[in-house]
Amino acid sequence: MRTSQTNAYGTNALKDLGSGYYGVYSGDCENNGTIDSGDRNTAWNNRNSTGYYDGDVNLDGVVDSYDRNKVWNNRNVAEQVPAVSKKSVNKIKKEK
Hints:
- The protein is an alpha+beta fold.
- It has helices at residues 37-45, 65-73, 86-95; strands at 15-18, 21-23.
């Protein structure tokens, strides 16, 4: 995307890809909000698998060294999303 760091919620929430492009960090295979050794293990355990597995962080249909390296290079990055109260979520559910 072409935007700036200041257009995202949080501090350094986007990765500068160069030439005015920014992207989000990939690698949270476990979907727990932090890229860590557990995510690297998921990518490793699914290595050489074809299909869309949790370890396929670039979504090309293959879990390979690219995915494992991406997880490792983005380790210790945590999601930065605004807190949502249960009251707000319940209200949204009722409105649907």
